Amino acid sequence: MSSGRVYDGFLPGRYPLDAYGNGGFRFADMSHRGSLLALPSGIKAWPVASMADLTDEALNPIFAEGDALELLLFGTGIDIAALPAAFRTRFREAGIGLDVMQTGAAARTYNILLAENRKVGAALIAVL
C-alpha cells in the first residue's frame, strides 16, 4: 500500500475499485483517504466530503472528460441524496448520463461497467 494518497492527486489510467469504506478507497495496490473521481483519464482525489461541498468547480473535472465519458455514477455517501436540479441540468446539457446512488452501489456498478469497457466514470463521496 502507498502512503494513503493518490500520487499528486491523480493516477492516470482506468482501475477497478478494490474496496471502499473507513473514509477512503483501495485501487491499483494503493489506498486513498477521502473522496474520489474515477474517470476515463484516471483517478483523482476529490475535495467533496458531503453533498453540501458540491459546487460547479468540483464538477469541472468530470465535464473536462468530453466524449470519453458517457455515464457518471454518483455515489452520495452512506445515504442516497438528490443531486440539485442545476447540476442535473448541467449533465443533461453535456450529454452525460447520470445515475445517483449510495457510494457502495456506485463503486460496485462502476467496476462492472469498467469491465465491460464502457465510457463510465464515478464521483464517489467517501464513507466511514
Automatic annotation (TrEMBL):
CDD domains: Mth938-like (cd00248). Pfam families: DUF498 (PF04430). InterPro entries: MTH938-like_sf, NDUFAF3/AAMDC. Gene3D superfamilies: MTH938-like. It comes from the Bacteria. SUPFAM superfamilies: MTH938-like. This is Mth938-like domain-containing protein.
